[in-house]
Specification:
With 118 residues, this protein is mainly alpha-helical. It has four helices and two strands.
Length: 118
């Protein structure tokens, strides 16, 4: 018997949710889940959040980077802002992974609940 077969279905779903919250790399399984319309309601809600969050970070990071290279006077502040934004992206994903590990609701202060994941 395979080790993966011994896992409970809830544990497998929980593990998939961890993969979605991986910074940068979690975008791909999340978009695949949305494309195939698979998974439960909580998985799709978290996938939507992950896709929106990753695309938002990517667009803002790209805008900051291009603005930094076209600007002469504000180059350093724009690059610092982009690096702080990237650090915030990684820290927020880590925070959400900890909340998921504790089996608490994944909620953000200004955004609200992403999905009840208990």
């Amino acid at each position: 018997m395979n080790d993966f077969d011994r896992l409970e279905p809830d544990a497998v779903r929980h593990l998939r949710l961890f993969f979605y919250l991986l910074p940068i790399f979690g975008f791909f399984p999340a978009i695949w889940t949305l494309y195939r319309r698979s998974g439960g309601r909580q998985e799709r809600a978290l996938s939507r959040f992950v896709v929106k969050f990753a695309l938002g970070w990517l667009v803002l990071y790209g805008l900051m980077g291009t603005s930094a290279f076209t600007s002469e006077s504000a180059q350093l502040p724009l690059l610092l802002t982009a690096s702080f934004m990237t650090s915030g992206y990684f820290v927020l994903n880590l925070f959400l992974m900890v909340r998921l590990w504790q089996r608490k609701a994944i909620a953000l202060p200004l955004i609200g609940k992403v999905g009840r994941l208990l």
